[in-house]
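Revision sheet: structure tokens.
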Amino acid sequence: MSLTILGIESSCDDTSAAVIADEYLLSNVMASQEVHRQYGGVIPELASRAHQQNILPVVSQALKLAQKSMKDIDAIAFTRGPGLLGSLLVGTSFAKGLSISSGKPIIEINHLQGHILSHFIKVNGRDNRSPKFPFLCLLVSGGHTQIVRVDDYLKFEIMGHTIDDAVGEAFDKCAKLMNLGYPGGPVIDKLAKEGDCDKFRFSKPQIPELNYSFSGIKTSLLYFVRDRIRENPNFIEENKADLCASFQKDLIDILMKKLLLAVKQTGIRDIAIAGGVSANSGLRNRIESEGEKRGWNTFLPEFRFTTDNAAMIAITGYYKYQNGLFAPLDIAPVSRAAEYGD
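Predicted:
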């Protein structure tokens, strides 16, 4: 049966809509919000207002580019959570209204599940290589850091997670400390390419099993820089690239240590990464080099699918539709979503 899904994503500060037909991407439109740069982070109230302005033209453009109308759509998939509640409310309310006006069912999507399943988005003219089940996914973003075992499109097991801060937050705090602007992750990645990754070392956490912690290494960086500035007020400016390279290498070392342990425990050889931090070139290179050395099949998402995008919501909706997993019209968004598959 041929299926065409409209996806809507509004979990944070990007408004996005996409159309997928039988796993193939027809359109993926996004409106970003530049207003948050001047504040050094996302302001929830401003984000929700911008979503209200952007969502109708973004959805309209996605349908136009896909050469589809609502009568061609089989279901509307939308991000229920996790995310900023005000932003989620805009996307959820719009999806409900569109459902009522068009008679199409709605499908609620876990945002994190969408990131993982972005590996199954097919694009015409591309190889469309995807992991085989079971595979391990290192999910890394500004709000989450997890190692997930994926046994099927809708069957997930979180094997490890951060007990405090996410790795993306550690990148952002490092950037803020050095006044690199927002978002800081891409700036750190760029500067790290020019620096010596072995110049400085920071304290790494000793967390049991497959869980992560990034609060300690952030504090280590803070105290290290504070002490050096007392000796040399220009320390950050004179060592910016080396600081970025060293801090990024330590974060990647922490991520990889637990991923290697998960591979050892499970014996799984298909390894994927997903989420905003999966765009980091240092992490991508490290995953690929470890894969070549250890005989893994590694899977890196396209850069456009690393950010919050509606294509990943639509593809997840595609698989949920096949299992008859529709949502009622009285469903409410949640800032912290339940475990995958619940």
